[in-house]
Amino acid sequence: MSVKRNLFNTVWDLHKVGTLETGQDQLFIGLHLIHEVTSPQAFQMLEERGLKVLHPERTFATVDHIVPTASQARPFKDRLAEEMMQAIENNTARHGIEFFGLNTDHQGIVHIIGPELGLTQPGMTIACGDSHTSTHGAFGAIAFGIGTSQIRDVLATQTMALSRPRVRKINVSGRLKPGVYAKDIILRIIADLGVNGGIGYAYEYNGEAIHALSMEERMTICNMSIEGGARVGYVNPDETTFEYIRGRKYAPREDEFERACRFWREIASGEDAEYDHVFDLDANTLRPMVTWGITPGQAIGVDERLPSLRDLPEDQRDIAEKALEHMGFAERDRILGKKIDVAFLGSCTNGRISDLREAARLVRGHKVARSVRAIVVPGSKQVSMQAEREGLPAIFQEAGFEWRGAGCSMCLAMNPDKLEGRQISASSSNRNFVGRQGSPLGRTLLMSPAMVAAAAVTGEVVDVRDFGEYGQ
Amino acid sequence: MNEIKQAIKTIRGRGIVIRGNDIDTDQIIPARFMKVVTFDGLGEYAFFDLRYDEEGKKKSHPFNEERYQGAGILIVNRNFGCGSSREHAPQALMRAGIRAVIGESFAEIFGGNCTAMGVPTVVLSGEDTGSLMQMVEHDSSLTIEVDLPSSTVRCGERTFPFEMHPAYRSALIAGNWDSTSVLLSNVDSIESTARRIPYLCGFSTPAKK
Predict the structure, then answer these.
(1) Domain shared by A236 and A313, yes or no
(2) Which of A6, A20, A90 to mutate to test the interface with B (most CBs of B within 10 A)?
(3) Distance to chain B for A200, nearest Cα, Å
(4) Model confidence over A75-96: pLDDT tens digits?
(5) Is a pLDDT exceeding 80 seen at residue A101?
(6) Taking 70 as the threshold, does the pLDDT of residue A108 lie above it?
(7) B37 touches chain A (CB under 8 A)
(8) Residue A430 pLDDT exceeds 50
(9) What's the gap in Å between the CA of A150 and the closest CA on chain B?
(10) Which pLDDT score is estimated for A303?
């Protein structure tokens, strides 16, 4: 056993079934999560071939993308959405797969419920037909977003064909200052390394600043790995991880939990672990980040100005020009003071209880600006129920936010929550692609939930450090 | 078992050029068209919001241009297919007639999804991509040949060497790009691997060999 191995390679080798003729490895998948959008065609392919699900007990299902968040009564008004609901209900029932539907207390965004249920654990390989599956890496799992053909492979064989990526350690030293959050760390990393900088890499987030974060904050960072091109992002498990998992529905119990912790400690990358590349970032230098363009890499500090085209590397000018045109912004504009129409709090990136607590803390006693439509969408039923126990919905509603049911909502516009026309939204989600939030002309500014809360109240992009109690 | 085994070696067709870096899968197929339980009929929604305005009027886009109708080989720039893992994106392209994609680089999940459908994604240098784009924009009737065994793209008098994920290339050439049957043939090794994974056996086996 080499002490120089990083977690990624240890976990990979543990799950390696063999090497295929193509040179790819066949990897056992310990946990498979499915949802209504990318799975129906996979079940159809299985049935066309007369195949069964090899390990139905290793797959768990929920519904999130198409679920309306205003009224979740069945049948849905949207006939197509209702058809998709029925497809996943039928497929999971027919194949003996556990399904957390709308009538359970555990429905929610797939990347929120996995950790919440204790299904997501260190040392696992995890796959899901959604690119934000990298979220689960926060626990020291290696978690891949996959396409529908690979869902078919995992259902039929509990394995996938994969090429081993290289591993880049992203070492974040120092500590975050007040008003600066996990979201700002990952937006800075993507801005620095580029939206394609992570292609062919798994990202290991390490360093003092990362290990000082809660599990929910680590999930925010791992979630957006794919926005930097890295299909996998992870954090080595530590005591924070173990305490989060302890006692959850699917977590190991008693003696088994103690044995599990030993295993989880063993797989973590050692101090002298080797990497293909290392990138250093100092958390002390970070400030709240806001995207100004149409890729998550087009982000700046809230007190910075947009770039001028001629200062950008040549290969970034074309997309920057498109971004300025779509956003209606000019070179060297300030991002501070840009008016917003919609404030969206939610998504698999920032729809967890700690995100809502922080936003509620900031909006308490304030009112949403008259020109702004503000919505809060808890990431899961559990988040929603916890928020209710803490009185958060009342705080949001008093401030003028709409309080909704759990789902993906306005992150991707597969449900009734959408931008209209050229509306511009301050959003705690993960993608600012053209049209992403439902209107082909709509515009998205990605930022932390605290920054969204402050923007909702002031009606424009503000520096959260100058807002409310931070500014006093 | 009803398996698909078809060797894909050489693809010939006319080219269609879509310029620009970081074209994400939300551009290739907007999410609202994914409210479907099959992939049938997705072809007409490829690049929908770039092809049509709010009133449904045609906008200027290569997929709308008469000269590119019937083209089978898509030529793109860098980081094509980034963002969402939706296989609906390459499915829409394939159902719109695309048989191969040539570009400067591809997002990882997109490249894998294309391969799983038998659509090669091959990588040319930035300079060669630019030359090929110019040739095709100048004369859209040119035949392009993507030849996997020789790792070259041929067009007119020019031959461009390409790079490709070696596993994807060999899977396409060997005709085993539809991976399910290959993976399932190792079912005994799958089960023996599961038996040594600690979390599948009460954490009573060691973590490292």
Answers:
(1) no
(2) A20
(3) 7
(4) 999 999 999 999 999 999 999 9
(5) yes
(6) yes
(7) yes
(8) yes
(9) 8
(10) 97
List CB contacts (< 8 A) between B81 and chain A: none
pLDDT for residue B209: 43
pLDDT at B1: 43
DSSP string, B89-146: HHHHHHHTT--EEEES-B-HHHHHHHHHTT--EEE--HHHHHHHHHHHHH-TT-EEEE
A300 and A253 in one domain? no
Domain extent, residue A257, equals 7-277
Ramachandran category for residue A409: left, alpha or beta (phi over 0 → left; psi -120 to 50 → alpha): left
What pLDDT score was predicted for residue B2? 46
Q: Which regions in chain B score pLDDT beneath 50?
A: 1-2, 209
Q: Say whether residue B30 is in contact with chain A using an 8 A CB cutoff.
A: yes
pLDDT at A283 over 60: yes
Give the pLDDT of residue A111.
Answer: 98
Q: Rounded distance, CA A136 to CA A235, Å?
A: 9
Q: What is the mean pLDDT of chain A?
A: 97
Ordered by start, the domain boundaries in chain B are 10-174, 179-209
Judge whether B21 is closer than 8 Å to chain A, CB to CB: yes
How far is residue B31's CA from residue B92's CA, in Å, rounded to a whole number?
A: 12
| Closest by Cβ to B183, choosing from A148, A161, A199 | A161
Q: How far is B45 from chain A (nearest CA, A)?
A: 14
The pLDDT assigned to A1 comes to 44
Fold (CATH) for B10-174: Aconitase; domain 4 (3.20.19)
Answer yes or no: do B24 and A431 touch at CB < 8 A: yes
Specify the residue for token string 């497809």: A87
Whether A2 is in a domain gets the answer no
Backbone angles phi, psi at A60, to 5 degrees: -130, 145
| CB–CB contact A159 B190 (8 Å) | yes
For residue B4, the model assigns a pLDDT of: 60
Subunit contact B79:A196, Cβ cutoff 8 A? yes
Is residue B153 within 8 A of residue B121, CB to CB? The reply is no
Cβ atoms of A401 and A375 closer than 8 Å = yes
Of A23, A28, A315, the CB nearest to B21: A315
Q: Chain A neighbours among B 121-160 (CB < 8 Å)?
A: none
B70 burial (CB, 10 Å; 0-12 / 13-18 / 19+) is exposed
Same domain, A248 and A378: no
* Residue-wise pLDDT tens digits, A19-40: 999 999 999 999 999 999 999 9
Q: Quick check: B202 contacting A, CB < 8 Å? A: yes
